């Protein structure tokens, strides 16, 4: 497994490998990331994984400083998974002092995460575009847990004519249905036991709508359930799966962001 920490090393390693699929990550790897590596292997002959905690996508009051970092454990997981190349840039390598270019995205980046975290998708779009260019990957794998992010990246790639396939991969879940996330480790045991209420509530909303309950009534009941369980909702909404605009008729994606004990949890499910 090759490890690169600067662009010159990355380019030399990249030249020695053939067609490659990329798994962009911020580290603190878990089974969800490993499932993306498995999917990447089906897309190309070689797999690259980037590990970079991107400061550009964190707001001033967000958890950049405490975001989990476990480089040694991550590298061992990647060796065991058969990763071919790991791109581990520093902040300076990714954003040199003279860096003056960012990517602003409208469309699917507006509302929801875009409203709750101003500037977040600017950071995501900028770093992903750089990663695509740096690695010259033919495909990039993204988990569907971050559904809005996936739509934003697809929009950027389409609008900027970037020659890469963006592949969405199913959300990997814990036994109680909670979507796997590097931030789940911040939940203490009592909160972790309660966190499974979020995916259960989403499934209940979907089942209610399937049984003929009006969408607004099903959402209101879901909000009530989550609030009574101690969640603070940023949003719970039915949106068009591609544009991320609120939708009053199918096709729908049910999306949610909720805080539990200071930990922000995201989830979504198709209808």
Tell me the Rg in angstroms. 19 Å
CATH topology of the largest domain: Rossmann fold
Number of helices: 10
* Strand ordering within the main sheet: 1-4-3-2-5-6
Number of strands: 9
The largest pleated sheet is described as: 6 strands, parallel
Number of structurally distinct domains: 2
The overall pLDDT average reads 96
- CATH homologous group name of the largest domain: HUPs
What is the distance, rounded to the nearest whole angstrom, between the alpha carbons of the first and last residues?
Answer: 41 Å
Secondary structure class reads alpha/beta
Low-confidence regions? none
Series of H and E elements: EHEHEHEHHHEHEHHHEEE
CATH first level of the largest domain: Alpha Beta
Backbone shape: globular
């Amino acid at each position: 497994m090759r490890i690169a920490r600067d662009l010159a090393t990355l380019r030399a390693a990249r030249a020695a490998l053939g067609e490659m699929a990329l798994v962009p990550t911020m580290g603190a790897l878990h089974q969800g990331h490993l499932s993306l590596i498995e999917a990447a292997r089906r897309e190309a002959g070689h797999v690259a994984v980037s590990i970079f905690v991107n400061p550009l996508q964190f707001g001033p009051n967000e958890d950049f400083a405490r975001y989990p970092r476990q480089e040694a454990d991550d590298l061992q997981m990647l060796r065991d998974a058969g990763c071919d190349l790991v791109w581990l840039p520093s902040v300076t390598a990714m954003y040199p002092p003279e860096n003056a270019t960012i990517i602003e995205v409208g469309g699917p980046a507006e509302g929801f995460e875009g409203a709750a975290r101003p500037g977040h998708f600017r950071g995501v779009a900028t770093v992903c575009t750089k990663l695509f260019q740096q690695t010259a990957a033919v495909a990039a794998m993204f988990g569907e847990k971050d559904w809005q992010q996936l739509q934003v990246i697809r929009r950027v790639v389409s609008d900027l004519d970037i020659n890469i396939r963006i592949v969405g991969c199913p959300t990997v879940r814990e036994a109680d249905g909670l979507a796997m996330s590097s931030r789940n480790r911040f939940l203490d045991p009592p909160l972790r036991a309660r966190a499974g209420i979020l995916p259960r509530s989403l499934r209940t909303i979907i089942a209610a709508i399937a049984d003929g309950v009006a969408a607004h009534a099903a959402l209101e009941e879901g909000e009530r359930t989550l609030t009574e369980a101690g969640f603070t909702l940023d949003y719970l909404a039915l949106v068009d799966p591609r544009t991320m605009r609120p939708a009053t008729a199918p096709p729908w994606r049910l999306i949610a962001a909720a805080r539990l004990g200071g930990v922000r949890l995201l989830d979504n499910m198709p209808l």
